[in-house]
Design brief:
The complex is a heterodimer of chains A (373) and B (395).
Chain A: H1 2-6, H2 15-33, H3 38-64, H4 76-80, H5 90-100, H6 109-126, H7 133-151, H8 168-193, H9 198-213, H10 216-230, H11 239-265, H12 268-276, H13 281-296, H14 298-311, H15 323-330, H16 340-372
Chain B: H1 8-53, H2 84-117, H3 122-136, H4 140-152, E1 168-170, E2 173-176, E3 178-179, H5 183-213, H6 220-238, E4 244-245, E5 248-250, E6 253-255, E7 258-260, H7 262-288, H8 292-300, H9 305-335, H10 347-358, H11 361-390
Classes of the chains: A mainly alpha (373), B mainly alpha (395).
Chain lengths: 373, 395
């Protein structure tokens, strides 16, 4: 790029000269970025060979020899090309199950609508000019609406109990509610960890370090196996809710550490000024400290959100029907058993779309803060 | 206290104020701790009640009972007749086996990709960027299942891939040639290890002397003598025989060599590739954090690019890199618990089986947590020590 910038401005005299100039520029770019030295040229050629070979193999498998549709539930066409080509036919056959799990088939527009609502909410929350109090109300209304859609039982929608929920809505619910409750928890714990009161501080330290020191799986096991033990008598709550509680506790500990980083970045003068105004502890935190602290850590917060979104897939291990579990279950069906790779690629694309959007957004925010400085 | 000075009243008032603040702080603390203790006590009494109702005895006595669970893939001697305690030890060994090797490989791969991302070669840096972006944005568990399915889809032992003579890749896993290690061989390896320690001390000495008079004293001849020549002489002197066992296909399986089971291999690949993407980003931002002037100054001195990277940039970048790297190592170790999803028997998987066999839920999960907390603390202690060692020494 550097040499292109140094190139003389385009002479507009004739089309011929312009073409020559453009060709020149391309050659220069190639020379600077791909063939700058002997070793660089070698690397370029080697990589080109590998990429071309890989792409050809991929196209052969994924497009040329692939089977896109099969009649009925008959996978014999797929089995004929097994090893040679992909069997994308498994996706149209199974996508409803993968996306919505065992939700009643004729009611699946409801979780689909819930997914769209979630996406709309996420989109709204990323707009800076929407960062107002109204956004909180919008979230509350939308979450209630999602609950109504998923459970039903009103407006002529038949009731669907949550053990029939599955697929993408469950993943989105686990991630969103995990963050919605984990975030306030994280704020309280982060403040507690920086508090001057030793008992409260040590309690918060123990909580954060204990949760961060163990894998999420052990917390999920705890929620699924130990929770009933710790409750009185016959009292028990739904498995999904138990996993949700574990994820909230987990998210709280990690978010607390991120927020603590932001709190540390707030200059001491801000505390002193707030004290001088005679603000109480909570008003000081709410009006002066937290808004600045959180603004500091928005990019790492988004990265934590991405990590959580991916980590919700761990509920597979305790048998909750999230997106990954439905995918794994979909291919238990005997005719389609051998085509798990295709299903995994499909699901990976969904996860990727969400996480990639978030990571792009985080990078955009980072660039914005850098510009603001 | 003795003499009333003009400014004593405000001082007393401030003391009262302070005391009032202290008092409210004390009340807050008592309240919060009281609630925490009450909740824990309530949960605990519920648990005791439920356990006695279900006739599950508490305590770790079950650890000395016969485990009766098969563990297929382990480097320690184990049979289902062994006690639970030993099964747990085997599980811990399996966790460490995947975590330690995974950390080493992920660091190497991640550093290479991080450096590739900054390469002047456009194609190479783009490719590294795509690698990082794709691997970071897909859940590890999904990647793990994907690798495991790929492993299972490999041809059987008879049609195994043989990328290099003596290496077989099949649905039985990866089979490598191995070297027979007994006590005579261990003596030789011990000598080499001792040689490494001596060399390390010597190198520090050489560097200290170079600092004093500026003369460069090459260290590699010492390395050659201490780590290669001396062990070789010991090997010759003791008449140690080094036998390589080559894997062979007999019937439907391999005999000889070292077998990495498909579960282990899939877990290792998934952990290494996933973590390397994060490490690559850390390495990249660490290198980018070094002011460009450092590069320019080094190049102006006429140093080669590789020399600049190794002696000028990396030592400075390490200071930025080490803290986030520590948390990646911890993540890899914790993520190794996903093994339970594909049936590699690490500590979590063995504790889970124990839990199902004995019903000792609290003890099993307490053991998992204890093991991971210990590993986490050891890794962070080691990395903190290393971090303190390489930290900037202001002169």
């Amino acid at each position: 790029m550097t040499s292109a910038a140094e190139a003389p401005r385009s002479p507009h005299s004739s089309g011929h000269a312009q073409a020559a100039w453009a060709r020149n520029r391309a050659v220069r770019w190639l020379r600077a970025n791909l063939f700058s030295s002997m070793s660089s040229s070698l690397v370029t050629l080697l990589l080109l060979a590998v990429i071309v070979k890989g792409l050809i193999g991929l196209v052969q498998w994924g497009v040329r020899h692939a089977v896109w549709m099969v009649p009925g539930n008959d996978s014999s066409a797929c089995k004929a090309v097994r090893g040679l080509g992909a069997c994308w036919a498994v996706i149209p056959e199974k996508y409803r199950f993968i996306l919505f799990g065992t939700y009643p088939y004729d009611q699946q527009w409801r979780p689909a609508l819930a997914i769209l609502l979630f996406i709309a909410l996420f989109y709204l929350s990323t707009r800076r000019n929407w960062w107002r109090r109204e956004l909180v109300y919008a979230w509350m209304v939308a979450l209630v609406l999602i609950g109504v859609l998923m459970w039903g039982g009103v407006f002529g929608m038949p009731f669907v109990s949550q053990d029939r929920w599955g697929g993408l809505p469950v993943t989105l619910i686990l991630a969103t509610f995990g963050l919605a409750f984990g975030f306030p928890l994280g704020i309280v714990v982060a403040l507690g960890r920086r508090s001057k009161l030793p008992a409260i501080r040590s309690l918060c330290v123990v909580y954060v370090e204990a949760i961060r020191g163990v894998p999420l799986i052990s917390l999920l096991f705890m929620a699924s196996v130990m929770f009933p033990l710790f409750m009185p008598g016959d009292f028990n709550i739904d498995k999904l809710l138990r996993a949700q509680i574990a994820i909230v506790l987990f998210a709280g500990a990690y978010l607390a550490e991120v927020i603590r980083g932001g709190l540390q970045a707030v200059p001491k003068g801000q505390h002193e000024a707030a004290d001088a105004l005679g603000l109480s502890y909570w008003r000081k935190q709410r009006l002066i400290i937290l808004p600045q602290a959180i603004r500091h850590v928005i990019p790492p917060l988004v990265n934590t959100f991405i990590a959580f979104f991916k980590d919700t897939s761990l509920v597979l291990i305790i048998g909750i029907f999230d997106l990954l579990t439905t995918a794994k279950t979909a291919i238990i069906d005997p005719p389609w058993q051998q085509f798990s790779i295709e299903v995994y690629i499909f699901v990976a694309a969904i996860y990727f779309a969400f996480c990639f959007a978030m990571s792009r957004y985080s990078r955009h925010l980072e660039a914005q803060t850098r510009q603001g400085k | 206290m003795t003499i009333a000075t003009p400014n004593s009243p405000p001082r007393r008032r401030s003391r009262i104020l302070l005391r009032r603040q202290d008092l409210s702080g004390l009340i807050w603390q008592i309240l919060v701790v009281g609630i925490a203790v009450a909740v824990v006590a309530w949960l605990w009494s519920n648990a005791l009640h439920n356990l006695s109702e279900r006739r599950i005895s508490t305590g770790f006595a079950f650890l000395w009972r016969e485990a009766g669970m098969p563990i297929a893939d382990t480097w320690l001697p184990y049979s289902p007749k062994d006690i639970y305690l030993w099964a747990f030890v085997v599980g811990i060994a399996n966790t460490l086996r995947v975590a330690v090797i995974g950390i080493v490989l992920a660091t190497v791969l991640g550093t290479m990709i991080g450096v590739a991302r900054l390469s002047a070669n456009w194609l190479l840096s783009r490719l590294a960027a795509v690698y990082v972006e794709v691997l970071r944005d897909i859940p590890l568990l999904l990647q793990l299942l994907f690798w495991y399915v790929l492993m299972q889809g490999l041809p059987s032992a008879r049609g195994a891939f043989r990328p290099i003579e003596g290496i077989f890749l099949s649905n039985r896993g990866l089979v490598l040639p191995s070297i027979l290690i007994g006590s005579p061989q261990l003596w030789v390896l011990g000598t080499a290890a001792l040689g490494f320690v001596i060399f390390y001390a010597l190198r520090r000495n050489l560097i200290a002397r170079q600092m004093r008079d500026g003369r460069v004293r090459p260290a590699w001849p010492y390395a050659l003598i201490l780590m290669i020549a001396v062990p070789a002489l010991v090997s010759l002197g003791l008449g140690v025989r080094w036998t390589v066992t080559w894997p062979e296909l007999r019937g439907f399986n391999f005999v000889g060599g070292l077998t990495l089971a498909p579960e282990y291999f899939a877990l290792l690949i998934a952990l290494v590739t996933y973590t390397s993407a994060f490490i690559a980003e850390i390495v990249r931002s660490g290198i980018q954090a070094i002011p460009k002037g450092q590069w320019d100054a080094a190049v102006a001195l006429g140093l080669r690019r590789s020399f600049v990277l190794r002696h000028i940039i990396l030592p400075q970048a390490l200071r930025v890199i080490i803290p986030p790297m520590t948390s990646q190592y911890l993540n890899l170790t914790k993520n190794s618990s996903l093994a339970v999803a594909i049936g590699y028997q690490d500590i979590v998987s063995i504790a889970n089986t124990t839990l199902n066999q004995t019903g000792q839920a609290i003890e099993a999960i307490a053991l998992i947590m204890a093991v991971f907390l210990t590993i986490s603390l050891s890794i962070s202690t080691f990395m903190n020590w290393y971090n303190a060692r390489i930290a900037l020494v202001e002169r």
